[in-house]
Amino acid sequence: MAHIAVIFLSVTTGLFFVLIGTIKLSPLVNEEIYRDMRKNFIRFSKVFPLASITKFRPSPHALRRVVGVVEVVNGLVLTFVPGPLKQVANIGLLLSCLFSIYCHYMVHDSLDKMTSHLIFGLLLACRFIVRLQVNAREVNDSNTKNVNLKNDRRQYDKVPSKMSTINPEYDISAEENVQNKKCD
């Protein structure tokens, strides 16, 4: 059941970020939202989190394009690519959500502007945790199967085989028991 939940979260959040990233990159989906995104990134570039440390402030258009490409690529990976790359894409999208939340908070936007990023950030965090639990369960199940297999081999070794009838030296204790019974 948890595996189905991880797949569902991967597909829905991945497609959401592909859509949002596409809106940030081009006005093809909705021109009005695209203009709002451009205005937001002009404000976001002023509060870029690493500007105080690196003394680097990216241009608003470059920042918008980078965030859009990160969201589209990671959304596609989260939706279509199997394997451990999904976890990397999940972390990338989670960092993108945290960046957006930070920027909205720093420019004093209301909570309704941050809501979608908060919700999808929580969904990504839940997906990450559930996937870790599924991986841990799979490892635990495979270890249990290996232990059971070893126990089955040990029990098989304890059962007298057909070799005792072919080679009498194989199971000497059985012959000794038979001879002791004859003597009694």
TrEMBL record:
<dbReference type="GO" id="GO:0031410">
    <property type="term" value="C:cytoplasmic vesicle"/>
</dbReference>
<dbReference type="GO" id="GO:0005778">
    <property type="term" value="C:peroxisomal membrane"/>
</dbReference>
<feature type="transmembrane region" description="Helical">
    <location>
        <begin position="6"/>
        <end position="29"/>
    </location>
</feature>
<dbReference type="GO" id="GO:0005789">
    <property type="term" value="C:endoplasmic reticulum membrane"/>
</dbReference>
<dbReference type="GO" id="GO:0005783">
    <property type="term" value="C:endoplasmic reticulum"/>
</dbReference>
<dbReference type="InterPro" id="IPR040399">
    <property type="entry name" value="TMEM35A/B"/>
</dbReference>
<keyword id="KW-0968">Cytoplasmic vesicle</keyword>
<dbReference type="GO" id="GO:0051131">
    <property type="term" value="P:chaperone-mediated protein complex assembly"/>
</dbReference>
<keyword id="KW-1133">Transmembrane helix</keyword>
<keyword id="KW-0812">Transmembrane</keyword>
<keyword id="KW-0576">Peroxisome</keyword>
<keyword id="KW-0472">Membrane</keyword>
<comment type="similarity">
    <text>Belongs to the DoxX family.</text>
</comment>
<dbReference type="GO" id="GO:2000010">
    <property type="term" value="P:positive regulation of protein localization to cell surface"/>
</dbReference>
<keyword id="KW-0143">Chaperone</keyword>
<protein>
    <recommendedName>
        <fullName>Novel acetylcholine receptor chaperone</fullName>
    </recommendedName>
</protein>
<keyword id="KW-0256">Endoplasmic reticulum</keyword>
